[in-house]
Specification:
Length: 338
């Protein structure tokens, strides 16, 4: 009898342990609302679905969005003005993700030119026009100010407490672009600010930081490069040519995943080439990797990528428990047979 209970407890324990890790699939639902830009008189391109306006110093005007509730239930919508940035994939990001950096040379942020975010309540099947006040500074600026409006559904008092009792419920959002300009344009220019060892997608990586130093939009430029281990003058990685775009006065952090064994401690040179038509930029920066840097990154990684042993310790414990369960079960079977 003792064997029976010991057998059941050891076999059932791992089963319960595994069953506690419940992965739930989240169903993607259709957007219950839609948004349109109400184009103003100073719109430069009347066929656009976003704001593309020319302004004068000191000008003040309203920018209006039409928000439509297509559902049969009331909705709350949050509309937030944001400055465009550049994502690590090399795309212009209108969502305002602050992990993607802007430069101090940015003339004005969109957030400072427009009035505060608004929370809009819509009854079922209702349409509302929502206006934001835009105030252009008296000092002239060159180039383009780029940003937009992020529109998200929100619901009060759900799972987590947030400021003013509002939590973003729907991960999917509308982004209506906003391009503001005056008379003078500026040609793009670049600075290769730095490169560094970092963790990316649970692997070792080299992150290059490319800066668009002007208030200009970079669209579909070409980027290629190589990383050189200077001690042996050895190319440890070639960056294949890729297309990228950048927001004005923003930083493009482009990571390159590498194996730990490809990155001995020492000094490196990162050379890149940017092309657009007949124009070419040749840029370079140097960086150093130390043993301490590698250990710091490695301690954050899964074992196969140079890191964390905890998952494998846990897995080993489970395997041992299953083996013990099998052995005790075999002993119990033999005892009953005798």
């Amino acid at each position: 009898m003792k064997f029976k209970w010991l057998f059941l407890s050891i076999v059932v324990f791992p089963v319960l342990l595994f069953s506690s890790f419940d992965v739930k699939a989240v169903e993607k639902e259709g957007m219950p609302y839609s948004v349109q830009a109400v184009l103003p008189e100073n719109q430069l391109n009347s066929s656009s679905t976003y704001f593309d306006i020319k302004v004068k110093p000191g000008q003040q005007q309203n920018l209006t969005l039409k928000v439509i509730n297509n559902s049969t239930k009331p909705l709350k919508i949050k509309i937030t003005p944001k400055t465009a940035r550049t994502s690590s994939q090399g795309h212009i990001d209108y969502s305002g993700n602050k992990q993607n950096q802007l430069t101090t040379a940015l003339p004005y942020s969109v957030e400072k030119l427009l009035s505060k975010p608004q929370l809009v309540t819509l009854d079922k099947q209702q349409t509302k026009q929502v206006s934001f006040t835009m105030k252009i500074p008296k000092n002239r600026f060159q180039g383009v100010l780029l940003g937009g409006f992020t529109i998200e559904e929100v619901k009060p008092n759900e799972s987590e407490s947030v400021q003013d009792g509002i939590q973003i419920k729907n991960k999917y959002a509308y982004n209506i672009g906003l391009k503001i300009r005056q008379d003078k344009t500026t040609p793009p220019d670049f600075k290769f600010a730095k490169a560094e060892l970092l963790k990316w997608n649970d692997r070792f990586a080299i992150g290059g930081h490319l800066i668009n130093t002007t208030a200009s939009i970079v669209s579909d430029y070409r980027l290629s490069g190589r990383i050189i281990y200077q001690k042996k003058n050895k190319v440890v990685h070639r960056l294949e040519e890729r297309s990228f775009s950048m927001a004005p006065n923003s930083t493009f952090m482009f990571p390159v995943n590498l194996r730990e064994s490809e990155l001995p401690a020492g000094k490196y040179k990162y050379e890149i080439q940017i092309q657009q038509g007949k124009k070419t930029w040749q840029l370079a920066t140097t960086f150093t990797i130390t043993g301490k840097d590698k250990r710091a990154i490695g301690s954050q990684l899964p074992l196969e990528n140079g890191g964390n042993w905890m998952l494998y310790i846990f897995g080993t414990i489970i395997i041992v428990l299953l083996a013990v369960s099998f052995f005790i079960g075999w002993l119990y079977w033999r005892r009953r047979k005798k």
